[in-house]
Amino acid sequence: MLQRPSHLSSIHETLRDGILDLVTSAEPPRTRLTAFVRTRLQKVPVAAFDDAGARAWLERLLHRMTSVTPRDERSPVSATVAEMSDEEIDDTLIEIVAFYEEVTRLDTHHAIRRRIEA
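Structure (tokenized):
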């Protein structure tokens, strides 16, 4: 089943802008990951995906990024990132880019399908 066009295009734009920030920022990887999750990834509504695979992937990412309960005033995202190793940070950043590629594929597929049906 195809995604709803307005939601998917909006999600794609949100993630694209965040990915550009991830790859061009001079901030350390931990800082970039925390900022991306808080300002981009957590704003993506899981229910906007009709594709079960994309929905499950986003749910896994969101769960992984909020799995640590903070012991102070930090957010769950900040607490989770603080406990991640450098390798886990790198792996998560790579997975986020792969998720973005999947959203791009779904958005492109949807756009082609709309043109064919028009």
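The longest helix spans residues 86-117. Residues 57 and 80 are 18 Å apart (CA to CA).
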